[in-house]
Design a protein that fits this description.
Blueprint lengths: L1 E3 L1 H4 L32 E10 L2 E8 L2 E7 L12 E7 L3 E9 L5 E9 L7 E6 L1 E2 L12 E2 L6 E5 L4 E10 L2 E13 L5 E9 L2 E10 L4 E8 L2 E12 L6 E9 L2 E12 L4 E7 L13 E2 L14
Parallel strand pairs: 9-13
Antiparallel strand pairs: 1-5, 2-3, 2-18, 3-4, 5-6, 6-7, 7-8, 10-11, 11-12, 12-13, 14-15, 15-16, 16-17, 18-19, 19-20, 20-21
Length: 306
């Protein structure tokens, strides 16, 4: 298998703009089109979760579902988020590893794998996650944990404080390291998602949340090496019903572009829509009209993003 970098396999997020009602494909409205890039822009990523006891994984390109997997059997643990930490693949098979905080407070490293064109995962393997001091990650029960970024894990405490936990990689595996409080807060009951991006050669993590009181999308931009400089922005209204988010990187013929795709999921109705933001790092308020992703009713999942 050819190793794929985390940078190539991760997703990037941001949001802002007009009103979006609960599960509606038309209520978002068409904002100005994202800034033109060099040729056709395509955005791709994957969404993991759990439904009917099975682990689920779907590949998304723009608003089209390109793959649809489930685990060979049911699993007893329930995910809260999926933080991708590496993967490998070729033209036939693939394998991806994640940090997965569980609803039982246990941190796990989970590896899933499959064969292109198939619908059942060939591998679903979990192991205990450890901290850098060697202790097992148990009793890990922040209100929320962010999925997406690969250099750190972000969580929200019961009081709304956002914490950055550094990740370290070694032959012993991935470990949770130093915890740093960011100078920003999020509602403790918020829905959150996150992803990395590179701007002028500098790595940033972008965190997004749906404020349950205002139904607005909030965004935090943070350099993981300078967490004290993190800033928060209120970027758009969303309406009610959107419980989960997933954000995907976008590319043209020349490589990565600033635009980002955001998939919003209502697990009650099972609907998902995609909107495209013109710039993630710029916390832009310019978005495309919403487009349906997959079949209505097919997204009644849990554990996509906590």
């Amino acid at each position: 298998m050819k190793i794929k970098t985390r940078q190539r396999r991760s997703a990037l997020v941001a949001i802002a703009g007009t009103a979006l009602l609960a599960g509606s494909l038309t209520a978002l409205g068409a904002a100005s089109s994202p800034a033109a890039a060099a040729g056709t822009v395509n955005c791709s990523g994957s969404i993991n979760g759990k439904a009917g006891g099975y682990i689920r994984k779907r590949g998304i390109k723009n608003s089209t579902m390109t793959s649809n997997y489930r685990s060979a059997g049911t699993v007893t643990w329930s995910p809260r988020a999926w933080i991708e930490i590496g993967g490998a693949g070729d033209e036939t098979t693939w394998k991806t590893s994640y940090i997965v905080p569980g609803t039982d407070g246990t941190g796990r490293t989970v590896t899933i794998g499959g064969t292109n064109g198939q619908s059942v995962l060939s591998e679903t393997r979990s192991a205990q996650l450890y901290r850098s001091n060697g202790t097992a990650v148990t009793g890990w029960n922040p209100k929320k944990v962010v999925n997406g970024p690969t250099t750190a894990v972000y969580s929200v405490t019961t009081s709304g404080v956002v914490q950055q936990t550094a990740l370290s990689y070694s032959t012993a595996g991935t470990r949770l390291g130093t915890v740093t409080n960011l100078p920003v807060t999020l509602p403790s009951t918020t829905t959150v998602a996150g992803v990395w991006t590179s701007h002028n050669g500098v790595m940033y993590n972008l965190l997004y949340s749906i404020n349950p009181s205002t139904n607005k999308l909030e965004q935090i931009v943070v350099r993981p090496d300078r967490p004290a400089e993190a800033k928060k922005y209120v970027v758009r209204s969303l309406g009610t019903g959107w419980r989960y988010m997933s954000v995907h990187n976008c590319y043209d013929a020349d490589g990565a572009v600033a635009a980002k795709d955001i998939v919003l999921i209502n697990p009650t109705t099972g609907k998902a829509v995609r909107i495209r933001q013109s710039s993630g790092i710029g916390h832009s308020t310019t978005f495309s009209a919403s487009t349906r992703v997959g079949t209505d009713g097919s997204w009644k999942w849990s554990g996509i993003s906590s």
